[in-house]
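Notes to self after the call with IL:
- keep both proteins in one doc
- input above output, always
- annotate only the second one for now

Protein 1:
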Amino acid sequence: MHFDPSHLAALAAILRSGSLDRAARHLNVTPSAISQRLKALEDRVGAVLVVRGQPATATEAGERLLRHAEEVALLEDALARDLQLAGVGQASLRLAVNADSLATWFIPAMAQGARDGLLFDLKIDDQDHSADWLRRGEVRAAVSSDADPVQGCDCFFLGSLTYVATASPDFMRRWFAEGVTAHSLGVAPAMTYNAKDRLQTQWIETTFGIALSPPTHWLASTNAFVEAALAGLGWGMNPDLLVREHLASGRLVELRPGSRLSVPLYWHVSRSTASSLAALTRAVRQAAAERLAGVKRSEPVER
């Protein structure tokens, strides 16, 4: 089945911008033209593709067609660059990445991708769950702690992000005056990113061999984790890359010196667009090699 490229572009613009009016402005056409293109595409498919609301969202069929439109755009963009054609546009790429990677090492890879003409639509999720976006077909690539290659994807080991259990000196004096023990950890306020974040409890289990659920502040922000630790709000697992200077200056201290967590990270990329995203994959691996620990040079693992 062939789809009119302008109809696919209209669908993608609606779902990315959240409304027909904004899609019209993005494509430099009238709202009426956007509406007509969407109707023509829905008639062609024989199904409703967009739920009109604030914002507009995709139906299951609309989501499937959006994935097709994105893949086509990436392939056409790569072909145009290979042929050195003039007027190459910017293809949009949806990928899943964990917040700590975004805050510590991933931006340089995105910057290289942007120079190559990519626009990014990031889905932020815990590293233990980001690969699920690929399994559902909602993104084309993901940074994940899952070493098991997603079906239909290539998988590259990137290195490990090292986490440190940190708190301010004042917090340590208040809550851990008698030492960091099972009892003190059970009453001292911790910080948790969201319900998927297990780093604090995992560190307790790994370091002390016990299962605890300490009282916690909920802070869904990597930078807020560091600021909250500095302010004495609680203790939490912070990426070493973000707190190294604070530890060196004494503004933060380790709860248990030398007891750290290493979270391995992998780059999963859909094989259907792997060739189109080869330059981005190189940029991701290079950025990881410069910042992450334990980098191994490996060939992609296929399934």
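Protein 2 (the one to annotate):
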Amino acid sequence: MGDIAYPVGTIVAILVIWEIACRQFDIPAYLLPPPSSVLATIVARYDLLAMHTLVTTGEILVGFLLSIVVGVVLALLITSFRPVERAIYPLLVISQAVPKVAIAPLFIVWLGFGWEPKVLVAVLIAFFPIVVDLVAGIRSVPSSMRKLALSMGANAYVTLYKFLIPHALPHLFAGLKVGVTLAVSGAIIGEFVGADRGLGYLLLFANGQMDTNLLFAAIVVLSVIGVVLFYLLLLIEAWLLPWHQTQQSPEN
């Protein structure tokens, strides 16, 4: 219970200070609206926010799921074949050095203004930590475990499925938790470049209208999406890995 109380208490304290400061110092609403005004905007414009939220959430989920597939496949290839690692790994690093905002317009040219460019940007941003962490997890398997699998007559596929992947799951979830937050950013970047719906589009629209309340409302919704997805992964991790030390309380 304390794990929830501390962050909730901190957020409440920040909101109270924010509200008091806005009213005490008469900060103009177009510069910094008080939390109560942002909440009123969320309630009043619920339908608008819900419509754009559904679009962005769909792009995030599709992009994140595809990034898992791409990340896992690449990690398995890298750890299984040395020539593949030498050929692909440097390209993966280069792909992360290129700003996604710079190449997103190309995706619009190639794929149009539909959902595909947004999903592709989300995949390109989110898959990298999944690859890196899963590769690290597979390579951290003790040699004694590999020898045990070999002594039991396990072939490469059985060794991977029964020994390597289970051992690497904590590393994989570490990458997934980073990747899901990056997928949110990727979808928004794609919407910034070219979209007629979605929270990224709504942010640009509200900015053009100088509607700071709506800007903050969209940011709040985006934050909620990221937090919910992150904690869903935590729940899945706790369900699949109850034995891992990350799931044990400090008292244990």
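Annotation: Residues 48-243 form a domain with the MetI-like fold fold (CATH 1.10.3720.10). The chain has one domain: 48-243.
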